[in-house]
Amino acid sequence: MMPDMKQYLAGRTLILVSNREPYEHTAAPDGEQGTAGESSVQVRRPPGGLVSALDPTMRCTHGTWVAWGSGSADRETADAEGRLAVPPENPAYTLRRVWLDDADVDGYYLGFANSALWPLCHMLLQHYDMRAEYWERYKAVNERFAAAAADEARRAPNAPVVWVQDYHFALVSAMVRERLAGERRPAFLHQFWHIPFPPPDILRLLPTAAYSGVMRGLLGNDLVEFHTDRYALNFLDCVDEFVPESRVDRDRRRVVLGDREIHAGVFPISIDAEQYESLARAPEAAERARELRHRHVPPGGCLGVSVDRVDYTKGIPERLRALDQLWTDAPELRRKLTFIVVATPSRSELRSYKTLEEEVVASVAAINAKFGDAEWTPIVLLKENVSADGLAAIYRAGDVCLVSSLQDGMNLVAKEFIACNVDGNGVLVLSRFTGAAAEIDDAILINPFHVDGVVEGLRHAVTMPVEERRARMQRMQSQLHRSTIFDWLEAILARVNELASGPAELRPPTDRPVGSDRAMRVGAADASAA
Ligand code: ADP
Ligand code: F6P
Question: Which residue blocks in 165-245 are alpha helix, DSSP H?
Fold first, then answer.
């Protein structure tokens, strides 16, 4: 349940800054224009962990969310300053849209953020592509978001807490700090880094000005938050290496720079577990799950599910290769194990993503042609954006959920599957390179780079006795309910409140992982230990 935010915000106003907006308005395509009286503008919630996690947060805190207005009908649905009340059907907070032109999107979003930082942070160097203009545009767009955030901070009725999200805005906090210097009410600035943070040897592949700028920008925060301790330690190592005038205290997860202290904290993100569970328990979800199984799974068979944006970090080709090998090595699983693969196109303007989309479609077609027949389609590929209740039904229908990310900051899909497994006998097969693997005990851990290990993990999952499946799922569900999105939020805001309220030396460090004292170790069952 959502904690009492007022207690933690202590009268402060929350201003959140992210690249992706929580509600995007798009003009309906030609031919789908509404008839008289109907709106031709559609609203959608973009897929992705960040939006899924933070919209419930903002609904409760009633602050302002500053984000890129990326929808084709975004301007006409906002006021002259880009502001509007959201959620559209039941307004609870303000969305302030920042406008980007095509050159901004190319250089800042597709360029520096997603062709340079994204592959480096995920340590997938073959996708790294850096140009001088990417960095210039990234700085300019960060400045524009900083201006909007500083403007919202000045309008706030109370002292502001500015909460920057992710790798799109490594420079924003330092810029906001500079813009608000001398204001009567000091802002507290913090940033959540939703993706892995790389070690210095990887970050130094950026040009010197860029890696130094990124690190100095992040040190504009009072607190920088990560999913795991490993990412926090990588961050401190990068500070040590690239900001020589700073003093790094690894034991206290703290940096001293001039007269300021910057803290690094560990806060694994989660989901609204109750909400997902109740979506999955709804009679419509039960009906839809039955229908899916009836349509796709032969009687007595087993259903595997996976849900991702099509992104090279998610290990989708690796997953398909493992399924191909599984049905080759274990013919008895043909017509027995069906997979529903939800794979929604993402960042399609980038060639590596477009190529991946095509590769996924072609591989699925090849596997279906190789093993399928008139009665059975081995892999059902769904490419569309699926509503939350639709996803809940898919998760509920699944006996096995396979998450095969090559690297993933957290991976919320793993947690959504656990929450929606209301029959209590599903098995989670989870990449050990997700933040979630450091938190969730009782998943079958796999190394997605090692196809034999994935096959072994899947065989283990489909042959696991029902008592063991139930026992594991029960433990994973209890663990999840002790560490929800609200625990995450509460832990971060408690830490912010503590740091914003007085000198750090007077207090013992308290930023331990939320909800679990096991959060930093890896689960017991590891199919790919070899
Ligand atoms: P990332 O943030 O890298 O996309 P996560 O697994 O952490 O990865 O979060 C993905 C989020 O996006 C989840 O909440 C998931 O339900 C949602 N999502 C993924 N694919 C779809 C889809 N096809 N339709 C709707 N939501 C999706
Ligand atoms: O979680 C990482 C992240 O980049 C989020 O910031 C983002 O919302 C999600 O992945 C989806 O990516 P994008 O916003 O580029 O579509």
Answer: 172-179, 200-203, 208-218, 229-242
Q: Per residue of the chain (530 residues), what is the pLDDT tens digit?
A: 666 666 777 788 999 999 999 999 999 876 555 444 556 899 988 866 678 778 877 888 889 999 999 999 999 999 999 999 999 999 999 999 999 999 999 999 999 999 999 999 999 999 999 999 999 999 999 999 999 999 999 999 889 999 999 999 999 999 999 999 989 888 999 999 999 999 999 999 999 999 999 999 999 999 999 999 999 999 999 999 999 999 999 999 999 999 999 999 999 999 999 999 999 999 999 999 999 999 999 999 999 999 999 999 999 999 999 999 999 999 999 999 999 999 999 999 999 999 999 999 999 999 999 999 999 999 999 999 898 999 999 999 999 999 999 999 999 999 999 999 999 999 999 999 999 999 999 999 999 999 999 999 999 999 999 999 999 999 999 999 999 988 998 899 999 999 998 654 444 444 444 433 333 332 223 333 33
Q: Which structure tokens are listed for 73?
A: 């009908």
DSSP notation for 440-451? -TTSEEE-TT-H
- 357 C-alpha to ligand 2 centroid (Å): 17
> Beta strand 260-266 with 223-226: parallel, antiparallel or unpaired?
parallel
- Which ligand gives the minimal distance to the CA of 349? 2
Which of 279, 413, 428 has most ligand 1 atoms within 8 Å of its beta carbon, as the pocket-test mutant? 413
For 346, the enclosing helix (H) or strand (E) is: none
For the chain, first and last CA: distance in Å?
41
Which protein residue has the closest C-alpha to ligand 1 atom 12? 48
